[in-house]
Design a protein that fits this description.
The complex is a heterodimer.
Chain A (H helix, E strand, L loop, with lengths): L1 E10 L2 E11 L4 E5 L6 H9 L6 E6 L2 E2 L5 H7 L1 E4 L11 H8 L6 H10 L4 H4 L10 H14 L4 E5 L7 H17 L1 E6 L10 E6 L2 E6 L1 H11 L11 H5 L6
Helix pairs in contact in A: 3-6, 4-6
Chain B lengths: L5 H7 L4 H5 L5 E5 L2 E6 L4 E8 L2 E8 L9 E6 L4 E12 L4 E9 L5 E12 L4 E9 L6 E11 L4 E8 L6 E10 L4 E10 L4 E10 L5 E10 L4 E10 L5 E10 L5 E10 L5 E9 L3 H8 L5 H13 L1
Parallel strand pairs in B: 1-5, 4-6, 5-7, 6-8, 7-9, 8-10, 9-11, 10-12, 11-13, 12-14, 13-15, 14-16, 15-17, 16-18, 17-19
Antiparallel strand pairs in B: 1-2, 3-4
The chains are: A alpha/beta, B mainly beta.
Chain lengths: 246, 311
């Protein structure tokens, strides 16, 4: 479904990706594991078209998408659950989940997506998405919006962060459903959520150094990545706003 | 397109025509310098007079009357060229509560002046809410010059919301002075979408004279094309425990739009505290990317962000 071929990206003087290739196939939950600052979120930004690499190709459903815009990639079905909380003033939970749906959805469907991630809909529908919501609530609203978008490829950037153990069970179940309808690229630096993945790749030192079953990947990560070099990627907003130039 | 009746214009501006014609709802309708209708209800006295090309309106809310439903005002000018001068006194007596919903409509303006002199006295422990929506037509060839002197007596509460989002603005110069006595609370909110050659000046000054008086002066603006805004807000903290905050957020788009915000803090009592924040900038790229990552075009995403700010 997603094929990344020979991706190379340098930001400033830092090599972020050095000939990275990976593939996510239909029905799979592919976990991308790596320490903080190894470029996992940057890879998501490249897949979305927010950052142009100097070399490499990205194929989605066998179509070369290097030149497609962010909007066009989303319309193809590549949907990101953002790691950081972004506030659009005045936007309610209902508004956000609705705009994410490609063909519009009813209130009942919005409620269904919220319930799927453990949010009691009556409480949340009209709430403005802002700092009054907890990190875990915002993360789940983000996931509900991804569900509404009916992704073919859901890229979930640390979807478990700030989520309590009870809600996490529902979130994991929602992620499995996303994979049934397409595929999931799960970005994480912890092993907590790795159990739901079907395969994992380790990003380390600007390369995917190993791909394996989740258990084996975690073991390898623990044994080999304690001191592996991080590339200290700049923050995504620094890259996108141009304060760091590719 | 010419708008034929004031009802039609009122409706375009978001008003509910039924509220202007019901005997059970207090209302006042003015076209140019003529009173078209005035419907007082028990506890709310409306007196009007027209002389020397000027309209005089007195509205008194009697002591102890507390209205849950709003009174409706419509100030309109249907002619393309006209001058409307309104001199209005509003007095809410002790322990009263009233909400006014005003629509000011100048839909066909080519050269219209709307000038208002208002004196508003909000009596002790009374609550006054004023929600004003303007519609100046699509090109906004209007000059709007409202001046208001407002006094909040002890324990009074004022919530004032001004909104001009549809169509263009024209030339608008607000000048509001507010005196807040003991334990009074004032919240002023202005939301304006400026475009074309709109020229928007807002000057608001709140003097927190009383102990534990509070004021928030808030402005949310979006401007583009050759529009310009000049937002001057000032809060003076005089009373013990006085608290004030000014907040101005503006989105500016294009190379020829101009936005200026000047929050002024004056504190003359070490038990008072006044704060401010102002942010002027282009559409936030994170917000744009978030919405575009859901398949929205840049224009659709921008519209949602702008509407959210002006909501």
């Amino acid at each position: 479904m997603l094929k990344i071929r020979n991706l190379t990206l340098t930001l400033g003087e830092k090599k972020i990706f050095d000939d990275v290739s990976l593939e996510v196939t239909r029905g799979e939950i592919y976990a991308l594991l790596g320490r903080n600052g190894t470029g996992k979120s940057t890879l998501a930004a490249v897949i979305l078209g927010l950052i142009k690499p100097e070399k490499g190709d990205i194929y989605f459903e066998d179509e070369l998408i290097n030149d497609l815009s962010l909007t066009e990639r989303a319309k193809r079905g590549i949907i990101l659950a953002w790691q950081k909380n972004i506030t659009v003033q005045g936007l309610t939970v209902r508004d956000y989940v609705r705009v994410s749906a490609p063909n519009g959805i009813s209130d009942a469907e919005v409620e269904g997506h919220l319930e799927a991630v453990g949010l009691s809909c009556g409480e949340y529908l009209d709430r403005v998405i802002d700092g009054k919501l907890s990190g875990g609530e915002r993360k789940r609203i983000e996931l509900a919006s991804v569900l509404a978008a009916k992704p073919k490829l859901a890229i979930l950037d640390e979807p478990d962060s700030g989520i309590d153990a009870v809600s996490l069970v529902m979130v994991e179940s929602a992620i499995r459903r996303m994979a049934q309808d397409g595929a999931v690229l799960l970005i994480t630096h912890t092993e907590d959520i790795l159990g739901i993945s079907t395969r994992a790749g380790i990003l380390c030192g600007a390369r995917v150094i190993r791909e394996a079953k989740p258990d084996a990947a975690v073991q390898y990560f623990k044994n080999h990545c304690d001191y592996c070099e991080t590339v200290n990627t700049p923050r995504l907003d620094e890259i996108i706003t141009g304060s760091v130039n590719p | 397109m010419t708008i034929g009746t004031i009802d039609e214009a009122y409706s375009i501006a978001g008003g509910n025509i039924h509220s202007l014609h019901s005997k059970n709802i207090g209302s006042l309708v003015i076209d140019e310098n003529k009173i078209l209708s005035a419907n007082a209800i028990e506890g709310a006295v409306i007196e009007t007079d027209a002389r020397d090309g000027e309209l005089f309106v007195n509205l008194t809310v009697k002591a102890g009357y507390r209205f849950d439903d709003p009174l409706h005002l419509c100030f309109g000018v249907m002619s393309p060229e006209a001058t409307q001068r309104i001199n209005i006194n509003i007095n809410t007596e002790e322990n009263s509560k009233v909400s006014l919903r005003a629509h000011c409509v100048f839909p066909n303006a080519v050269d219209v002046l709307h000038a208002m002199e208002a004196r508003i006295n909000i009596g002790p422990n009374s609550e006054y809410s004023y929600d004003e929506t303007h519609y100046h037509g699509e090109r906004g060839q209007v000059r709007v010059v409202p001046n208001a002197k407002i006094t909040l007596e002890d324990g009074a509460r004022l919530y004032n919301s001004f909104s001009l989002i549809q169509g263009a603005v024209g030339n608008m110069k607000f000048d509001y002075d507010i005196d807040c006595l003991d334990n009074s609370v004032c919240h002023m909110l202005a939301k304006v979408y400026g475009k074309f050659d709109d020229d928007i000046t807002i000057r608001e000054r709140a003097r927190l004279k009383g102990a534990n008086s509070h004021a928030i002066l808030e402005a949310r603006m979006v401007i583009r094309d050759n529009a310009r805004t000049d937002i001057y807000t000032e809060i003076i903290g005089e009373g013990d425990g006085a608290r004030g905050h000014m907040d101005c957020t503006e989105i500016i788009s294009g190379k020829t739009a101009y936005a200026k915000a000047t929050p002024v803090v004056v504190v003359v009592n070490d038990k008072a505290k006044i704060t401010h924040e102002a942010a002027i900038g282009s559409i936030d790229s994170d917000q744009l990317n978030l919405l575009m990552s859901r398949g929205l075009s840049p224009d659709q995403a921008t519209e949602i962000i702008v509407n959210g700010l002006l909501k």
